[in-house]
Amino acid sequence: MNRFKYFIPVVAFLALAVTLWRGLYLNPKELPSVLIDKPMPAFAMNTIDGETVSNTDLPDQIFLLNVWGSYCLPCLVEHPTLMRLSEEGDIPVVGINYKDRDDLALDWLETNGNPFSYSIYDAEGRLGIDLGVYGAPETYLVDANGVIRYRHVAVLDETVWENDFEPAIAELKAETPQ
Amino acid sequence: MTSLFDLRVPQRIVFCVATCCLLTLLIVSESLAQVDTFEFDTIEQQQRFRQLSNELRCPQCQNANLTGSTGGIAEDLRREVHRMIMEGMTNEEIEQFMFERYGDFIFYRPRLRAETILLWFGPLIFLIIGGFVAYSISRRASNVPDADIELDSSQQARLKEILGPDQS
After folding, report:
1. Residues of B in contact with A31 (CB under 8 A)
2. Which residue of B has its CA nearest to A28?
3. What does the pLDDT look like over A96-148, one tens digit per residue?
4. What is the residue extent of each domain of chain B?
5. Structural domains in chain A plus CATH codes
6. CA distances from A138 to A54, A64, A100 (A)
7. Does A135 touch chain B (CB under 8 A)?
8. What CATH number does the domain located at B39-111 have?
9. Chain B hits for A135, Cβ within 8 Å
């Protein structure tokens, strides 16, 4: 037992080394959202098509809120996944056109296809600030009661969808049978 | 009075390169500072704006404050800080606004909460552990009894041999 104490520094060193090693692979760009389990912030804005839209217009079911812009290259990367989701139709995708110009946004949708039920036109990024957005693309998972349940920063590709969103959605469906 | 042209060629080149470097540095640091285009009613409001923009971190650029960042979100947050100051909100209310949206990350000096307690007191804990270890090592070193360092007869003989016959 007395001999064991000579190993304490080695054990302490290994513990610290493993912790720091793991730290190297954390993504410092992924900030925890303070809005998880909080209701969607109140908003009354226009869509990029010029129609008025507010909280009451949000879907009454689990949906995605995707922050995008025509200037945003990673948005093109995740675009096929969003298109697939909108074609399947189980989970509606609402867009937030973040700090963009509506004419450029409409052009972008026409060229690439439109996966969004509608896109809220947030030219000044006001709604973005209320959501804690700091750059497109970001995707929020919102439940049927309009409460934010999950947030993903950066590209939402098929791998992210399978690993992060599918389990989160399954969990939501389990707690509120629809 | 020596002018640039009195210098020999290598010196002249060194002088010119050094001047260019200095000028570049000046221009770069000039362009890094964001120009305030906001208008305030009082000097006090302007000072509060400067202070808040210096103490709030840009969420996008990670290691720059709102003042030093050219990022789009930093620009928007500066505009929000200006709006809230002009609407008469206190610094605490503005900080709370930022905290509700961006969390602890937005502060360079995070709030003391259950989640940040390790951040605040972690170094102190390690300092205490280190101090304790250092103290116990030094105490053990001074507590070694004299009897333990006495030499037995064969060691005494060897010592005498090394020191030579004149010593005793």
Report:
1. 59, 102-103, 105
2. B62
3. 999 999 999 999 999 999 999 999 999 999 999 999 998 889 999 999 999 99
4. 1-32, 39-111, 116-163
5. 32-175 (3.40.30.10)
6. 20, 10, 15
7. yes
8. 1.10.8.640
9. 60, 71-73
